Amino acid sequence: MIETEKKRGALPRPVVALIPLLVLVVLVSFTVKIFGSDSLGGGSQVALLLSSAVAVGISMCLYCMPWQAFTDALKKTIGGTSEAIVILLVIGMIGGSWMISGVVPTLICYGLQVISPDFFLICTCIICAVVSVLTGSSWSTIATIGVAFIGIGTMLGISTAWTAGAIISGAYFGDKISPLSDTTVLASSTSGTDLFTHIRYMLFTTVPSFVITLIIFGIAGFLMKGSGAEVDAGLDGLRATFNITPWTLLVPLFTGVLIARKAPSLITLFLSALAGIVAALILQPGLVAQVADGGINFSDLAKGASMILFGPTQIETGNAVLNDLVSTGGMAGMLETVWLILCALTFGAAMASGRMLESMTGALVRHLKSTGGLVSSTVATGIMMNLTTSDQYLSIILTASSFKDIYRKMGYESRLLSRTTEDAVTVTSVLIPWNTCGMTQSTVLGVATVAYLPFCFFNIISPLMTILVASAGWKINRTDGNRL
Which of 85, 226, 452, 472 is deepest in the core (most CB within 10 A)? Predict the structure, then answer.
């Protein structure tokens, strides 16, 4: 009995805490090898649940963790991301309504006429960055204009992996420095830093990272052999299928007004989806009727509108490439991702309830003496949290909370912690296949996470830049006001 009480709640050794994570990496790798691009259809979910079982089993058998601890952590973890799951479903609604209404096809047609293949990648990155700064949301940016850029890139003959990399790089730059971004607010508040102090301090690492990213995309655009041979055929196909008109742009304009009025994200996205449906009924009634496999009457149009929001749609354009481009999944297309998110959060809850995350963090922060070492450990912890909790919000909270006292005791300003947390967590979450961000953007853009990962230059450079700047001691001050 005494031995049991000693074990209960004990901190696992780091080597033990790593076991479930290693099991997950092995199982996911094996799943991808077996199922390939279909690994998210069930295999990855099984891998996550098996790894969760390993974590819970170790905690219960070796450290006498009560089952209730896991269920409590599970309720807290899933409950904290419930809004994000609903937002994901609404993004599926937007995908269907903005496509059938002609919003995305119109943006593609106009984009093909003004953007050349040489400048496409750099323009994509910059435009996504601007929109993301204004909206404060990488998810909204990617789900709207990001989808349009995928279509434009496809018509220009540019790899979807490169296009997705440019979209994500720009979107996460804006998400990272926008005062409207929830991750920006979360990182500053959790570390105890004023919001605008946090944003200004991030510029020292974020701007150089973004400039390097733009240089890479600029060079790549000139070297890439995007022929654009399909442009004329694509334009003809879109114009023959959709009513291409500037009136469709009232929908994104309406969305911009909602954003400017600072409406909650869920309300903005939901109303944007409904606006898309209204536009579809007015401007594309024939396509709505085609989805319902009926005629232009109230009953069939109502049926078609509902199907566009909740289910997959396939419009015949006479062009195989365009058929794939304009097909949508609606809310049903997001269910596979929601399923994966729930399994990923289960793994995060299993690791947290058994104090395994705490153990791995502790191992990283021991014997810290230099600024570079401290920041490097924070970056490593943030990435590890993204890998294990599968949620960027939880990762930000855990990383900032774990290091807050350490930074204070070592005499560093809280803004160094808030910046490092954002540089490590926010931008890398989208690079992990089983993280909520990675799963979402992969589903929305139709590009596998492992395919776009090498081209998300901003997301890769940011954590390295924050280590480099900290190691150089640039703009690093002690809490007593003395510069290092």
Answer: 452
Q: Distance of alpha carbon 423 from its chain centroid, rounded?
A: 14
Count helices and strands (H / E) in the chain.
26, 0
What residue type is assigned to position 107 of the chain?
A: L
User: For the whole model, what pTM was predicted?
Assistant: 0.68
Distance of CA 124 to the CA centre of its chain: 17
Say how many CA atoms lie within 13 Å of 239 toward its Cβ. Answer: 10
Pull the structure tokens for residue 139. 């998810």
- The Cα–Cα gap between 288 and 307 comes to 9
411 phi, psi to nearest 5 deg: 85, 25
**Taking a C-beta distance cutoff of 8 angstroms, is the pair 329, 95 a contact?**
yes
Q: Are 383 and 424 within 8 A, CB to CB?
A: yes
Rounded-to-integer distance, Cα 137 and Cα 177, Å:
10
Pairwise CA distance, residues 462 & 291, whole Å: 44
DSSP string over 465-484: HHHHHHHHTTT-BBTTS-B-
Q: 20: which 2 tokens? A: 């479930």
Which neighbouring-strand residues pair with 483? 477
For residue 417, CA distances in Å to 46, 398, 420 come to 36, 12, 5
Q: How many CB atoms lie within 10 A of CB 324?
A: 12
How many residues are listed for the chain in this entry?
A: 484
CB 392 within 8 A of CB 440: no
Give the CA distances from residue 172 to residues 266, 384, 420, in Å, rounded to whole numbers and listed in that order: 19, 19, 15
Amino acid letter, residue 252: P
Torsion of Cα atoms, 286 then 291 then 293 then 295, to 10°: -30
**Angle value at C-alpha 440, between 439 and 441, nearest 5 degrees:** 100
At position 64, the amino acid (one-letter code) is: C
**Per-residue pLDDT tens digits for 87-114:** 778 878 887 888 888 887 887 777 767 7
Residue 54 backbone phi and psi in degrees, to 5: -65, -45
SS3 148: helix
Task: Give the 3-state secondary structure of residue 225.
Answer: coil
C-alpha count within 13 angstroms, C-beta hemisphere, residue 23: 21
Q: What angle do CA 98, 101, 104 make, to 5 degrees?
A: 45
Note whether 419 and 196 are within 8 A (CB): no
The SS3 of residue 262 is coil
C-alpha to C-alpha distance for 79 and 82, rounded to whole angstroms: 5
pLDDT digits (tens, 9 = 90+) for 395-446: 887 787 677 777 887 788 888 888 999 999 989 999 988 787 888 888 888 8
Q: What tokens were used for 210?
A: 């973004």
